[in-house]
Amino acid sequence: MLTGKQKRFLRAKAHHLTPIFQVGKGGVNENMIKQIADALEARELIKVSVLQNCEQDKEVVADLLAKGAKAELVQIIGKTIVLYKESRENKQIILPN
Description:
Protein name: RNA-binding protein
GO molecular function: RNA binding
Radius of gyration: 13 Å
CATH superfamily: YhbY-like
Shape: globular
Strand order of the largest sheet: 1-2-4-3
Distance between the termini: 12 Å
Number of domains: 1
Keywords: RNA-binding
Pfam families: CRS1_YhbY (PF01985)
Largest sheet: 4 strands, mixed
CATH architecture: 2-Layer Sandwich
Organism: Thermolongibacillus altinsuensis
């Protein structure tokens, strides 16, 4: 679990990122979860945007993605979800204690 300090640090790092995934009408599926898990392994910190036509609630989408990709939910801001997962292969982000 992330501490408040670590979440603030990650939110600041995520601020300039653009969402690389969009959840739309189809909602969350296995393929999307796998792609997000792969992206997290490569980048550690990503943004996902929830489109207007998504039938699932953004909190539900965030929960499904975080659990599916075994990632930490950093924040939900508007229709954007920020996810973090420490990379095994190429760790780039050093979290504060």
